[in-house]
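Entry 12.
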Amino acid sequence: MKLIVLTRMVAGITANTEQNIAPLVPLSGPSPLQLSNEPHMSIVASENAG
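Predicted 3D structure (tokens):
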């Protein structure tokens, strides 16, 4: 039962963040997607450089 509650909480948190991010996309174009991808790109770049 605890796992079900935790998964529901996590699903609710992710749904809330998606709802908050979604309205920003049409207003500012692809910048939110670029911002979300930059940390991953920097990690990949640092691994490749090393």
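Annotation: Residues 2 and 8 are 10 Å apart (CA to CA). The chain is about 90% helix and 0% strand.
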